[in-house]
């Protein structure tokens, strides 16, 4: 057995780092003691300091004094989700950058110590929710403010690790090497469903879902599988309808695929309703594809090249604007759609913001 | 009773090493050969005796082999795997040092096949240990890749002596591992290596069949049904008639692929190969009987999941929709079909939550795919189908 370091740092940030960042003026605005902002060297608020992420490099050994044991890591996650995430005085994207960086250092400490399954699961769950929540709230932001690619990468990495941990736990339970601890696993369906929805239309993710033990195939997971199959079958009517039934974070993630589904809808409908004289009512289109207003529908129609008259949308095959040629259908459906204007559906916004943010991240 | 004494065995190994006879050596290093079952070959520390008969490097091979047999007899597949893996590593070194000769390929086939089999056993036994699921098989795959690299890089030797002829057998072993640990994306570079190989058509028939079976399945997962059809059909037609189990395996994938492309299997074939589960499904799809379809899908769900055809069978539902709509078109005998008529039929057949919007959506997708020729008029709530060939045969679509 390899030996792993046991952390000894009992605060969210090692003393050494606090001193170093204080003297080098590297304190984050969220960590500065109130009233000292204008000092030549602003003072640190020790209760708010959280260890920064630093890349581990070759030759650098880890000092147990700067590594936090699992219980402190868990406390730090809670601090970030309750005290920092709910801060409304500074822009969300600044908070996002801050939390995302601190979560990375938490994950790093976790991996260095090879924390046990129970700890890893409880630490990872809120982290994954945070990335998922951010993927939704910051969708469409300029790349210079929010890097969705990086965020998705972290989301997927943590989610996969979490699912692996669930699998390992399953094996331990089956071989009776551990007690079944219900609180650790009660959220599992949410994350199984999240994996499927995040990788919408992807066979590998669906396969994971259908191969799950019956115990985990809750209605949430079943709906996620259904949603993914609806997506790959191009059933835009039912896809949009099913989104509304998911709990906040899952609904939010599912809604991010709407631009792709709408584009698919335009493509299919301009073929199937192809007519020079007939039109399709704007109101109906709005309801089916979950737009907020008629104007939004008209704008989107304009984007794809379809004129909207008094009677409705004129769907004609020849109008549909293909952004790039030589694409297979599958690519088309899965292509990121940042160039298409996307306004988040109001009902999802309500769903997401109706719940207290820290509850959403920690307990949802 | 003994198969033969250990010293006799060692003498024979020495003779075949000097000959050299790859085939004979392969059987003597096989975990599945008759000698493996006898206690006198299961040795925990055979080094002393082996060294008296054999010199390097063959002594090393035999030691690992006998130790592997010992641990298998003890039921310790973890340790058995370690020995077999060490044997394979040692063999790779030998293979690499042999220029312009390929007589040892039969040994490679045997050693590599055994490695995978032992790894599978070890994987099943691993529960409770620290290894991640699939880790042992992944390590075995790395080992096989080591062999593969040596074979693939051998491009100086003449055609008779080239080790590149051994590539396909290794690729097939790797496929088996990758399909088992669900890492299909790793198959792609292997497929490319085989497809661009000048020996593409000279590999043995049995290897080609295995190869096409896996590439066909991979194509199926990638939704490339034409290609899947090609490969699986080749595998089915060329697979020997006495290999019923293999033919059945191929058929499990070939049937849904063929059905998606518009071909209906005969009951005789399904019965002959014991895949009669498909017959009800065929009926449901042909009749457009969605209710029956859902029932069968539920009843055989675990069978479909186990075989990895759950999603492709689900896709057959689209064909069932098409057939149902065609039936209604024929019954109404009109080129204008009320959307409501279709919806009523869907609800009647158990699709109770389908409304007019979704019915239109299903038809729209069918039109887009070319399975129905016509257009929808939302204002008149009608589907207007083409006067000529409104439901073109599926097999005519590309």
From TrEMBL, chain A:
Residue runs in coiled coils: none
Matches recorded under InterPro entries: SAC3/GANP/THP3 (IPR045107), SAC3/GANP/THP3_conserved (IPR005062)
A UniProt-annotated Pfam family: SAC3_GANP
GO cellular component, one term: nucleus
Gene Ontology biological-process entries: centrosome duplication; spindle assembly
Residue stretches making up the SAC3/GANP/THP3 conserved domain: 12-308
Highest taxon above the source species: Eukaryota
UniProt-listed Gene3D superfamilies: 1.25.40.990
Protein name: SAC3/GANP/THP3 conserved domain-containing protein
Higher taxonomy: Eukaryota, Metazoa, Ecdysozoa, Arthropoda, Hexapoda
From TrEMBL, chain B:
InterPro entries reported in the protein's UniProt record: Csn12-like, PCI_dom, WH-like_DNA-bd_sf
PCI domain residues: 209-390
GO cellular-component term (any): transcription export complex 2
Species name: Brassicogethes aeneus (Rape pollen beetle)
SMART domains: PAM
GO terms assigned for molecular function: double-stranded DNA binding; RNA binding
Alphabetized PANTHER family for the sequence: PCI DOMAIN-CONTAINING PROTEIN 2, UNCHARACTERIZED PROTEASOME COMPONENT REGION PCI-CONTAINING
Annotated Gene3D superfamilies: Winged helix-like DNA-binding domain superfamily/Winged helix DNA-binding domain (1.10.10.10)
Biological process annotations from GO: poly(A)+ mRNA export from nucleus; post-transcriptional tethering of RNA polymerase II gene DNA at nuclear periphery; transcription elongation by RNA polymerase II
Superkingdom, taxonomy of origin: Eukaryota
Family per similarity comment: Belongs to the CSN12 family.
Protein name stated in the entry: PCI domain-containing protein 2 homolog
